[in-house]
From TrEMBL:
Gene: gatA
Assembly behavior: Heterotrimer of A, B and C subunits.
GO cellular component: glutamyl-tRNA(Gln) amidotransferase complex
Provenance organism: Candidatus Adlerbacteria bacterium GW2011_GWA1_54_10
InterPro entries (UniProt xref): Amidase, Amidase_dom, AS_sf, GatA
Molecular function GO terms recorded: ATP binding; glutaminyl-tRNA synthase (glutamine-hydrolyzing) activity; transferase activity
Top-level EC class: ligase
Domain of life: Bacteria
Record keywords: ATP-binding, Ligase, Nucleotide-binding, Protein biosynthesis, Transferase
Tagged with keyword Transferase: yes
Catalytically driven reaction(s): L-glutamyl-tRNA(Gln) + L-glutamine + ATP + H2O = L-glutaminyl-tRNA(Gln) + L-glutamate + ADP + phosphate + H(+)
Protein name: Glutamyl-tRNA(Gln) amidotransferase subunit A
Function, in words: Allows the formation of correctly charged Gln-tRNA(Gln) through the transamidation of misacylated Glu-tRNA(Gln) in organisms which lack glutaminyl-tRNA synthetase. The reaction takes place in the presence of glutamine and ATP through an activated gamma-phospho-Glu-tRNA(Gln).
Length: 473
């Protein structure tokens, strides 16, 4: 059967259950596509040599479960791609950094344990911005991932490899991590679905930390239904992550349909063609019975500033562990300080070093209250405004990104790249769940490039996001 890799997870799961295809056939189709496309796109940093063996074991497990009348997970035998900052025992996890180039994980991340229990097949580890710091995957130590729709453009970041892999059918689905839009940004640029769950809904145990109070693992898939399937597999409280919560799967009895739009935020540099797609999506939702109203969120003006100050501060703290002594790259100098300085200079890229320096600055004596303290206060004010907003609306809608995918090298000034996160960082600041759904394409230099619609919901209300997303996609 041709083009098996183009199936959605839901479609493939049904065919596997009916005995029409095997996991080996699915995996072979994905591997063939990887061999054809990955050399030019650079979505995978490593393709696992035992992927077909994993698939064979999945087929055997299915046969045994059927013979014993056991329940079978819909993810059994489904080939997935995994972002390079999520630990899989016995495999390299470099976070796309030279400092962890040869690091081999000694345990499974909790999400990996759950996917293994479900019987998923891991195809390989995908490219990303180093330590999940960036928005284009240009900060990878191993080169950028290119956009499937135009290889002169970025795939987005920091989960660019995962999004490109799904968009090009080199995997049926993928895991990414979202710190300030790192799942939703590349999902928008690559024309796929990306979910950032409620903070704490998915365990962070085994995720290489970037910004601990923002990071969340989330699925990147071809459809909303597939994102829901993966999310419901990996969600749940974990004793290994004290911030995780047991948030029972909610059921939508009466679909929620009141959508708030922060119009003042849309005035901040959204490209006209993206705005036109956004308005068209709102009209489609109205046609499905939704009500669209304007809302005010005054503290949004401070969201980007607060986000990056907290980001820098936590990056400085989290990356202090990479000192050239305990693990990772270790270069020797004339003194202990030289060991430390040389290892970090050679191991970290320029963006990572920049954030460490700035984070150390905002946490230093004399500047802590002026910068970090105010950023935390702004974050709390924004969180309160979101709670209040969700008393009157069911979703908040914006474009996911203000423009389509950037040309590689276009945003050489770091500040200009930071500004494209204007719509995505709020969900990380407040901890709310948010999803990016394809909403059409815009033309850039003769090529049609995808753009995404972002919906944000109240804490723990992923089910509402899925229900609304299915109205559109």
């Amino acid at each position: 059967m041709a083009n098996l890799n183009q199936l959605t997870i839901t479609e493939a799961s049904k065919k596997l259950a009916a005995g029409e295809i095997t996991s080996v056939q699915l995996t072979e189709a994905c591997l063939a596509e990887i061999e054809k496309k990955n050399p030019s796109l650079n979505a995978y940093l490593e393709v696992f040599a035992d992927a077909l063996e994993q698939a064979r074991l999945a087929d055997e497990r299915r046969a045994l479960s059927l013979s014993k009348g056991l329940e079978i997970s819909p993810l059994l035998g489904i080939p997935l791609a995994i972002k390079d900052n999520i630990l899989i025992e016995g495999r390299t996890a470099s976070a796309a950094s030279k400092i962890l180039e040869n690091y081999v994980a000694t345990y499974d991340a909790t999400v990996i344990k759950k996917l293994k229990e479900a019987g998923a097949v891991f195809l390989g580890r995908t490219n990303m911005d180093e330590f999940a710091l960036g928005g284009s995957t240009e900060n990878s130590a191993y080169g950028p991932t290119k956009n499937p729709y135009d290889d002169s453009r970025v795939a987005g970041g920091t989960s660019g490899g995962s999004a490109a892999a799904v968009a090009t059918h080199m995997a049926l689905g993928a895991l990414g991590s979202d710190t300030g839009g790192s799942v939703r940004n590349p999902a928008s640029f690559c024309g796929v679905v990306g979910l950032k769950p409620t903070y704490g809904a998915v365990s962070r145990s085994g995720l290489i930390a970037a910004v601990s109070s923002f990071d969340q693992i989330g699925p990147i898939t071809k459809t909303v239904e597939d994102a829901e399937l993966i999310f419901n597999t990996i969600r749940g409280q974990d004793p290994l992550d004290s911030t995780s919560t047991e948030n029972p799967k909610s059921e939508i009895r009466n679909p929620k349909k009141k959508i708030g739009v922060p119009r003042t935020l849309l005035e901040k540099g959204v490209e006209p063609d993206v705005l036109a797609c956004f308005e068209s999506s709102l009209e489609k939702l109205k046609g499905q019975g939704c009500e669209v109203v304007d809302i005010a969120l005054p503290s949004l003006d401070y969201a980007l500033s607060a986000y990056y100050i907290i980001n820098f501060a936590e990056v400085s703290t989290n990356l202090s562990r990479f000192d050239g002594v305990r693990y990772g790259l270790s270069l020797k100098g004339e003194s202990l300080f030289d060991d430390y300085a040389s290892s970090r200079e050679a191991g970290f890229g320029s963006e990572t070093r920049r954030r460490i320096v700035l984070g150390t600055y905002v946490l230093s004596a004399g500047y802590y209250d002026a910068y970090y303290g105010k950023a935390v206060a702004a974050r709390e004010q924004l969180r309160r405004e979101y709670i209040k907003a969700f008393e009157s609306v069911d979703f908040i809608a914006t474009p996911t990104m203000p423009d389509a995918a950037l040309v590689i090298g276009e945003k050489s000034d770091p500040l200009s790249l930071y500004l494209i996160d204007i719509f995505t960082v709020t969900a990380n600041l407040t901890g709310n769940p948010a999803i990016s759904i394809p909403m059409g394409t815009v033309e850039k230099e003769g090529k049609q490039l995808p753009v995404g619609l972002q919906l944000t919901a109240a804490h723990g209300d992923e089910a509402a996001l899925f229900a609304a997303g299915k109205l559109l996609y």
